[in-house]
Backbone:
């Protein structure tokens, strides 16, 4: 009897058959293995089983550019390492360094060379040194590359293999259904050695979409992934992955082949000897976003994209009604999967994830409040040609200065509340460096660089930043100290494991609360946050605390007595009430 194929071979063959049904699938499978496990490398005998051991309550991630801190003398990556080791030890244990490769535009997301470190930042020794002390996340910008890089140059000259690396469109095709995150024309006309072509540009005319219908493109990306893993990368952020596969006449987003490619990458990671986590970046409504978990066979983690607009709305409006309604309907992540929770990033606050969650009039009030705080609005083109808000561009610290009723004296407490919510929820918390540093809006950068997103991509002059952090009264020192204290405290609570049980509490609409229970069921935490400027009282009995146990608020140190008075929440106060104080 013929021997049965092993599980890896069978699964890989099935996925390749779904992606490239007309190709020589056996040859592609062989090439995939050689790309991901080149000579001298080997894979596990068995797949790494889905579990909750890939992460713990100690995990938290800092999001930063390689040059968010500069001084004009030392390499920015050296300065980043100094900041991480001197300020972030014990606060976060992971760092997402946004694209650190040579690039031509979009602050790194138009990559010219995936195999090099931008020399203006440092080199691979700097990257690997950081990776030895922190879990390193890097960007796999796999949907597109720079029009000014060697791949596209060789395409224009008709040189193999790059003459088939880019997706060519036809202006005569029906492209009305294509989902766009930008307002620029989808196709760019270029003159190549082989004549006039129309290349596909989902994001900008400097970012040319790759053609994954050509297996050589996938193989090259797998070689790049292997190189990054060898350099110490342990979390791979699949940038703009939802747009990977194109078929005219369709929305060209979330197509079955795209999901199959993510599943293929997950399969390779499950058999890798290194522990590698896949994170998908899909800034889309909830159901579409959650689809990238697959059946525990796609992303290990997905961004919790509805959180930023919903938390912003809750704290600007003073009601957690919509945040509570959304969270109550969120499923727990499957075994082996986790949410990545955040409120701010290098991009703006996406408004697409708010679709179907926040009514249009509430979205309009958020936009009004953010613009009153000095923020900007970026638009996208709808299939019918109209434009709609795509994201809000504003420093989150500045956005929290403003409520629907204007400014007040609770700015710091309101901002800290927004970050504490992220620390409390099921999942892994991630914090943009400019949130940790209470960075104000950088309007000068917007004017200088001609892009809205520059408002929240400030580059701190390190001596100036250190001076701010030495001043205990500065916004920077207060925010970093308070957030660091809470993150250190959080890392010691087993009830804050990313997969610990979570139940959304039904409370006064001015309060947003969840009950978390550790995997061993020994610790419970009632994490409750006042999102309003009002004093709010809650009976201890209304949150189902078990009688006979000692309950303490970890954040204030107060004992919570079941037979005592109501629990009082000052404006924007947060409490972590636990039985394991």
Residues:
């Amino acid at each position: 009897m013929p021997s049965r194929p092993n599980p890896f071979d069978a699964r890989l063959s099935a996925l390749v058959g779904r992606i490239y049904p007309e190709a020589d699938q056996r040859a592609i499978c062989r090439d995939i293995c050689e790309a991901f496990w080149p000579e001298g490398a080997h894979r596990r005998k068995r797949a790494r089983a889905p579990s909750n051991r890939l992460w713990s309550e100690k995990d938290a991630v800092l999001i930063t550019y390689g040059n968010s801190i500069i001084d004009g003398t030392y390499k920015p990556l050296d300065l980043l390492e100094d900041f991480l080791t001197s300020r972030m030890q014990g606060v976060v244990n992971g760092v997402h360094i946004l694209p650190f490769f040579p690039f031509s535009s979009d602050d790194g997301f138009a990559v010219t060379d995936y195999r090099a470190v931008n020399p203006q930042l440092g080199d691979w020794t700097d990257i690997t040194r950081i990776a030895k002390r922190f879990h390193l996340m890097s960007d796999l910008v796999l949907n597109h590359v720079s029009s000014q890089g060697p791949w596209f140059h060789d395409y224009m000259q008709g040189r193999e293999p790059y003459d088939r690396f880019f997706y060519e469109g036809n202006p005569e095709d029906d492209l009305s259904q294509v989902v766009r995150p930008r307002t620029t024309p989808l196709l760019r006309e270029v003159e190549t050695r082989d004549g006039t072509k129309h290349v596909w540009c989902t994001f900008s005319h400097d970012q040319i979409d790759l053609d994954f219908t050509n297996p050589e493109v996938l193989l090259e990306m797998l070689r790049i992934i292997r190189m990054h893993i060898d350099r110490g990368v342990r979390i791979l952020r699949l940038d703009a992955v939802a747009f990977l596969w194109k078929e005219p006449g369709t929305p060209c987003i979330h197509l079955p082949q795209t999901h199959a490619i993510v599943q293929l990458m997950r399969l390779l990671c499950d058999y890798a000897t290194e522990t590698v986590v896949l994170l998908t970046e899909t800034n889309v409504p909830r159901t579409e976003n959650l689809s990238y978990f697959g059946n525990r066979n796609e992303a290990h983690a997905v961004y919790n994209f509805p959180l930023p607009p919903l938390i912003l709305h809750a704290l600007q409006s003073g009601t957690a009604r919509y945040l509570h309604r959304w969270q109550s309907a969120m499923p727990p992540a499957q075994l082996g999967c986790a949410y990545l929770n955040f409120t701010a990033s290098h991009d703006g606050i996406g408004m697409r994830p708010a679709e179907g969650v926040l009514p249009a009039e509430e979205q309009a009030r958020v936009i009004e409040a953010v613009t009153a705080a000095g923020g900007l609005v970026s638009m996208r083109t709808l299939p019918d040609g109209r434009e709609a808000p795509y994201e809000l561009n504003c420093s989150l610290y500045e956005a929290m200065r403003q409520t629907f009723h204007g400014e007040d004296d609770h700015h710091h407490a309101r901002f800290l509340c927004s970050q504490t919510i992220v620390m409390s929820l099921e999942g892994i918390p991630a914090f943009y460096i400019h949130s940790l540093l209470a960075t104000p809006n950088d309007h000068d950068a917007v004017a200088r660089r001609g892009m809205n997103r520059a408002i929240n991509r400030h580059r701190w002059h390190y001596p100036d930043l250190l001076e701010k952090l030495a001043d205990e009264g500065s916004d920077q020192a207060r925010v970093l100290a308070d957030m660091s204290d809470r993150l250190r405290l959080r890392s010691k609570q087993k009830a804050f494991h990313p997969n610990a049980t979570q139940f959304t509490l039904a409370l006064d609409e001015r309060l947003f609360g969840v009950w978390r229970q550790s995997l061993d069921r020994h610790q419970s935490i009632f994490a409750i946050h006042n999102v309003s400027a009002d004093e709010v009282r809650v009976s201890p009995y209304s949150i189902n605390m078990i009688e006979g146990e000692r309950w303490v608020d970890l954040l204030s140190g107060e004992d919570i007595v079941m037979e005592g008075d109501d629990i009082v929440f000052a404006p924007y106060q947060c409490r972590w009430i636990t039985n394991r104080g």
Notes: The first strand starts at residue 61 and ends at 64. The chain has three domains: 61-142+235-251+276-496, 144-209, 501-578.
